[in-house]
Amino acid sequence: MLTLRDKIMLFPLWFISLFPLPVLFVISDFVFLIVYYVTGYRKKVVIGNLKKAFPELTDEGIKKMAKTFFRHLCDYFFETLYMLNMGNEEVKRRYKPQNPEVIEELYARGINAIAVTSHYANWEWAASGWIQMPYKTIGIYKPLSNKLFDRFMIHLRSRYGSPVEPMKHTLRAIIESQKQGDTFILYLVGDQRPMKSEIQYWTTFMNQETPLITGPEKLAKKFNLAVVFIDVIQKRRGYYELNYNLITDKPKETEEFEITEKYIRLVEKQIMRNPGLYLWSHKRWKHKKELADR
Length: 294
Hints:
Helix content is 47%, strand content 18%. The protein is globular, with a radius of gyration of 19 Å. It has one domain. The N and C termini lie far apart (44 Å). A seven-stranded mixed beta sheet has the order 1-9-8-2-5-3-4. With 294 residues, it is α/β, with parallel strands linked by helices. Strand 6 and strand 7 form a beta hairpin.
């Protein structure tokens, strides 16, 4: 919960969030100029990642894609702030499920599930989209090192009524929900880079040898949870559509790493549709397989 001191320190962000979203996009355009041309925030990381992922592109093509990414990153920041004042009806206009029957059918059968997505488009707005789900929804998140902003993000992610839990409490959240007899769905952003000591599976992702976290698959098999991939499609600025892709409703019948592999192929397909919407500013390929094997 935000303290009075937190609210005072976060007042500038709250004040900015009061503007209509079209006004925030005008501010976003200005911030993009500063971020891209002046500060160069993580520009080397972004361009390096894009060159690895798209070796066939020219330098001009990479530069164009990088600009698209930075424009969207600025929009993402202001869209996330806007959640502070975005009401339920506006959520339904801006973040629309296109095939809710996938989720509704699982819920009707009493099947608990995991919803996995990636750092693509606006993954934070998923918290606002939870009000459109029949399930009790539990958001699983990785705590931020900055405690003030960690509390701020918890506030944002839970303001639509769904609880959020840090990753280390995932098992506890599942067990408690089962004890209470809840029909629940976990929400996870599954393309995090695992710690070197946690790497258990490597695959080729965007032309690179890539380690993947296998936590969602392990949870699905341990607790017999269906796995659904949330594909987010940006229609235009501030408007998204969601497509639910059922990976499996029988996780215990799948081969080892099958769920993880299907997930990452869906992420790859999503990126290829519009590469500029993916989060290229993190060091996704920091770990090298040959070094990890040693």
